[in-house]
Design a protein that fits this description.
GO cellular component, one term: cytoplasm
Pathway: Metabolic intermediate biosynthesis; acetyl-CoA biosynthesis; acetyl-CoA from acetate: step 1/2
Largest sheet: 6 strands, mixed
Number of helices: 15
CATH class of the largest domain: Alpha Beta
Radius of gyration: 22 Å
Keywords: ATP-binding, Cytoplasm, Kinase, Magnesium, Metal-binding, Nucleotide-binding, Transferase
CATH topology of the largest domain: Nucleotidyltransferase, domain 5
Distance between the termini: 24 Å
Strand order of the largest sheet: 9-8-7-10-12-11
Subcellular location: Cytoplasm
GO molecular function: acetate kinase activity; ATP binding; magnesium ion binding
Order of helices and strands: EEEHEEHHEHHHEEEHHHHHEHHHEEH
Strand content: 15-25%
Length: about 375
């Protein structure tokens, strides 16, 4: 990304690292897409591939690696240690490693990427941007669980929340569009994708969010169960004779929309099935919207009102049926959706509330990469000034 004008020069990534069929996907500034298959055994090889294509004569966006001034990394879990983005040092890496138990599937590859970049570009500064950092402003009564306090002190078991970079971007962007002061607004941000979460944002700070200790809690998602009675979990484990690992796979990978519908985790396929009369698909859609609505209502109560409701993420930006279902029946709160504006709207910034509505309903496409780039630029420039 060219930070002078915040122009996206290229985007892409590497998938299936260490597995058969690994590949690099790359999209040029002109929209042309390139797919390169290869044996990508580890993260350092994958990043080396990325740097190679970025500087190639045929597909590149820069002439040489010396043009790279800084590197920003998305890191899923920062625990209670990180409440903002940070310049990455050996000490910071050590603290990130302390958070591995909180995100054993996500933080190790995040760290591998950081270490690989350190090896390939040792003199380029790196910045870590944490998914959990934005929610560190939650008050204790919102993030604590009703379990023995000793377990919180011993293991850090509490609500952390995720999608913080997305919630931060869309809430600020919505206020820019509406011309209002971010620090005075009550905002409910709905990030709806295969993973989904809702955040309550009051006066510029996250005060509650639906995801918890892990991304499993909260809304019904593509393959995640969301809110679920712990008693039901232990009951199923006993009846099915499964351990914790199998239970984690069941509730993270085989539940949610996929589990209820038996069709797919892809909302487009579920909508098609519903339109063709599939009862389970209809049930899944009703459950999905209903849970969003419950969280919106709960956060209105928690904040003493709401000024703006935002929809973002793949489903939030493109799912007009989901947006309509989530807002239906909330007119008494001043949340009034304009069905004509909402119908067919796809990935476009737009106010979809009725004219004169007390509460603005916004669709704001998220841009987490921009937030990472902005934080990286700001932190590196501060270092230079010092």
């Amino acid at each position: 990304m060219d930070v002078d004008g915040w122009d996206v020069m290229a985007k892409g990534g590497v998938e299936k690292i260490g597995l058969k069929g690994s590949f690099l996907k790359h999209e040029k500034e002109n929209g042309e897409k390139v797919l390169l298959e290869g044996e990508i055994l580890d993260h350092e090889t994958g990043i080396d591939y990325i740097l190679g294509i970025m500087t190639s004569d045929r597909h590149g966006c820069i002439k040489e690696m010396e043009e790279i001034d800084a590197v920003g990394h998305r890191v899923v879990h920062g625990g209670e240690t990180f409440n903002s983005s940070v310049f990455i040092t050996d000490k910071v890496i050590s603290k990130m490693e302390d958070c591995i138990d909180l995100a054993p599937l996500h933080n190790p590859p995040n760290l591998k990427g950081i270490k690989a970049m350190s090896s390939l570009l040792p003199h380029v500064p790196q910045v870590g941007v944490f998914d959990t950092a934005y929610h560190q402003t939650m008050p204790k009564h919102a993030y604590m669980y009703a379990i023995p306090n000793s377990l919180y002190k011993k293991y850090g078991v509490r609500r952390y929340g995720f999608h913080g970079t997305s919630h931060r971007y869309v809430s600020k962007r919505a206020c820019e569009i509406l011309g209002v002061d971010y620090k005075t607004q009550r905002i409910i941000s709905c990030h709806l994708g295969n993973g989904a979460s809702i955040a309550a944002i009051k006066n510029g700070e996250s005060v509650d969010t639906s995801m918890g200790f892990t991304p499993l809690e909260g809304l019904m998602m593509g393959t995640r169960a969301g809110d679920l009675d712990v008693g039901a979990v232990t009951y199923i484990m006993e009846k099915e004779l499964i351990g914790t690992q199998s239970a984690s796979i069941l509730f993270n990978k085989h539940s949610g929309m996929l589990g209820v519908t038996g069709i797919s985790s892809d909302m487009r396929e579920i909508e098609d099935a519903m339109n063709n009369g599939d009862d389970n698909a209809r049930l899944g859609m009703e459950m999905y919207s209903y849970r969003i609505k419950k969280y919106i209502g709960g956060y209105v109560a928690a904040m003493g009102g709401v000024d703006t409701v935002i929809f973002t993420g793949g489903i939030g930006e493109n799912g007009d049926l989901t947006r309509e279902g989530a807002c239906e029946g909330l007119e008494f709160m001043g949340i009034e959706l304009d069905k004509a504006k909402n119908a067919g709207l796809r990935s476009k910034e737009m106010d979809i509330s009725v004219e004169g509505s007390k509460v603005r309903i916004m669709v704001v496409p998220t841009n987490e990469e921009l937030v990472i780039a902005q934080d990286t630029k700001e932190i590196v420039e501060d270092l230079v000034r010092k």
